[in-house]
Amino acid sequence: MKDLEILKDRINGLIMPLLQSLGLQLVDIEIAGRGRGMLLRIFIDKEGGVNIGDCEMVSREVGAVLDVEDPIPSSYTLEVSSPGLDRPLRNLEEYKRFVGRMVRVITKTPIENQSFFVGRLVSVSDGSLILSLPKDKTVTVPCEDILRARLEVEF
Q1: Which single residue of 50, 90, 125, 147 could bond 82 by disulfide (Cβ 3.0 to 4.6 Å)?
Q2: H or E segment at 97?
Q3: Domain with CATH 2.30.30.180 in the chain
Q4: Is the Cβ–Cβ distance between 98 and 55 less than 8 Å?
Q5: CA gap 80, 60 in Å, rounded
Q6: Would you say residue 1 has pLDDT above 70?
Q7: What's the confidence (pLDDT) of residue 33?
């Protein structure tokens, strides 16, 4: 597991300058499988969202950088995509970006006897999220208490 984190950090360091020069954000890096069956997934985003052309361009550019630097010792498959409509939220900047949207939050410890919340993200302040829940209820969730958070798909 530690080897995968080291590899992710190395890949992050190699591709971050490229993504920034293209006006893109690195959302996540996933590595699945081992040996010849390894899959490297890179999730990118930008203001207004990414399109297939962005993913194709990043795939070509990142592929070239990884071919030269060769951080992965075996063959692998590279996938580049957007984080999706139900994207995970991982940090304060992402929470702030999606104020007003519906979110799903799972906490490490219960808040008001509950660890799972689905509600509208009203605000982010002082390291906490304010969620508007059904029945005119609100809850304050400290960011350090968040185990997982993601956007909810709204129709």
Answers
A1: 50
A2: helix 92-97
A3: 92-151
A4: no
A5: 10
A6: no
A7: 83
d(CA 128, CA 140): 6
Domain 2-81: assigned CATH number: 3.30.300.70
Specify the fold of 92-151. Answer: SH3 type barrels. (2.30.30)
DSSP β-ladder status, 128-133 and 114-125: antiparallel
Residue where the block lists tokens 């590899």: 7
| Burial degree of 49 (CB within 10 A; 0-12, 13-18, 19+) | exposed
Give the pLDDT score at 117.
97
DSSP-assigned beta bridge partners for residue 114:
111
54-104 pLDDT, tens digit each: 999 999 999 999 999 999 878 899 999 999 889 999 888 899 999 999 999
* Alpha helices, H only, the chain: 2-21, 52-69, 92-97
What pLDDT sits at residue 48? 86
Residue 141 · residue 127 · CB < 8 Å: no
